[in-house]
Amino acid sequence: MQNRSLSFWLFLTPVILGLGIVVVIPFFYGLFYSFTDWNGISATAFIGLENYINLFQESEFLDSIWFTVKFALITVVLLNIMGLGLALLVTRNIKSSSLLRTVFFMPNLIGGLILGFIWQFIFISVFGDIAGITGIEGFNGWLSTTNTGFWGLVILTAWQMAGYIMIIYIAYLENIPKELIEAAKIDGASSFQRFKNITFPLVAPAFTVSMFLTLSMAFKIYDQNLSLTNGGPFNSTQMVAMEIVRTAFSDNDMAYAQAKAVIFFLIVAVIALTQVYYNKKREVEM
């Protein structure tokens, strides 16, 4: 027993050390620096809550939070609907299900920067050509306005992540006992009734996992935002992660950026943990 316990800690030690060095220690250092005038090299004065007071008075930071919240809400709903729909499609007894799984998952393997440039070409060049051929002006000027830039980011993210969320739902759908479905069919239950009363309650844990992943991903998105719109026009499609990076490395205000990062961390943590709590509670009720 002692040998097993020792081997357990020996295997666990590298992970704990890595987590501490890469995550825990930098987090507390950053928290401390957010109360100073740190310039990236040294901190000469402790200024208390000044950085935090200033950031709540900065319209650009508050606008980026609101833009990110809207993006997260729409993306979470869309990704979970698409992920579940694709999972239901590929778990049917069709010959091409394996091929479809691969095709739907492939966009997730492409880097966010590359995807952003691909969709930038589509929205600008391809949509521009379509507008020229059809005369539909709605295809012109994508990414040049806040509204179309917002939906461009939503489309890109949904296309990239839907296949990943699909895999999570597939894992739960394939664990549903086939006897339950067959019994419901024999009892005359329609497809909708089977989904509502059997499938949906049994895949409820997948919603908890998927919503946590999609929420955290939607709030932390940066590379797609950088390559698709670069925050334009006039920083109106700038998400929180990009706003923090620009404060740190363009404005060279490291302590102020760190204070923003702390607030950003708290917002994401509260929202993510709250949804996990309510989803877990709903699973028990179902």
Automatic annotation (TrEMBL):
One of its GO terms (biological process) is transmembrane transport. Residues 65-275 form the ABC transmembrane type-1 domain. Keywords: Cell membrane, Membrane, Transmembrane, Transmembrane helix, Transport. Coiled coil: none annotated. The chain crosses the membrane at residues 7-29, 65-91, 103-128, 148-172, 200-222, 261-278. One of its GO terms (cellular component) is plasma membrane. It is a multi-pass membrane protein. It is found in: Cell membrane. It comes from the Bacteria. Pfam families: BPD_transp_1. Belongs to the binding-protein-dependent transport system permease family. This is ABC transporter permease subunit. It comes from Halobacillus litoralis.
